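Researcher: Structure for this, please.
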Amino acid sequence: MAYHEHGPVDPKIDEGVRRPFLNTPAGFALCIFLAVAGVFLWVDHRAHVLGALPLLLPLLICIGMHFFMHRGHGGHGGKSGGRDER
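Model: Predicted structure, token format:
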């Protein structure tokens, strides 16, 4: 009886290549589960989420301003430290 393999023609082709997690069956199942869970959470807790928006929007604005406005002086731990170095 002859032996034949049902895999790729050259086994070295797929040896060092790993598929991204989302392209695996487990990754696809996780995406579907998270989507269904998100829909159920939105339907059941819509009032809580919409009630928290007035509190969350200023927080997100503050975080965004902090992130984008630190570009001007080099972030925390700048070289000058507020003193004039001549």
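Researcher: Any notable elements?
Model: The two ends are 87 Å apart (CA to CA). Residues 25-69 form the longest helix (45 residues).
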